[in-house]
Amino acid sequence: MNEQSITDRYTLADLGRWSEVAGEIDPPIRLGVFGDPVAHSLSPQMQNAALRAFEINMQYARFHIRANELRPALRFIRELDFVGINLTVPHKIAGLPQIDVADESASRCGAVNTLRLFSRNSQRFLNRFARSTSDDPWSGRRHRSRDSLAMRVGKL
Length: 156
Hints:
Blueprint: E1 10-11, H1 12-16, H2 18-22, E2 29-35, H3 43-53, E3 59-64, H4 70-79, E4 84-87, H5 91-95, E5 101-102, H6 104-109, E6 114-116, H7 120-132, E7 149-152
Parallel strand pairs: 1-3, 2-3, 2-4, 6-7
Antiparallel strand pairs: 4-6, 5-7
């Protein structure tokens, strides 16, 4: 995979004109982290290394999304065919009421870390991952992010 460089972080305004901002990025950005602040996050380096290792043709990026921008940002990523988003401060608690289905542990703790979006792209991603490893990325105790997995973003 010949990864094209992506910016340090994107904003809600960037999501609003995503085809203009990221249309030429290859592989495409289909995963990310929403936060405020988010510039310090090392998630893109870790996640992009894993995506390359499993030869999954997409990238993970940072999104500087303020608290009052979470709902419209979630609408955009659903429309833009993203596969998933991680939420960090201050969105972990505010994200829970924005989703259709949460697993039991996310409901119990009242916060969510990982949003899985259902679309053609997300199903292809999961199928590719399942062929690459014996571990199911959305189940089992070996996956820490599963403990706060939200299953669907749809109440938008």
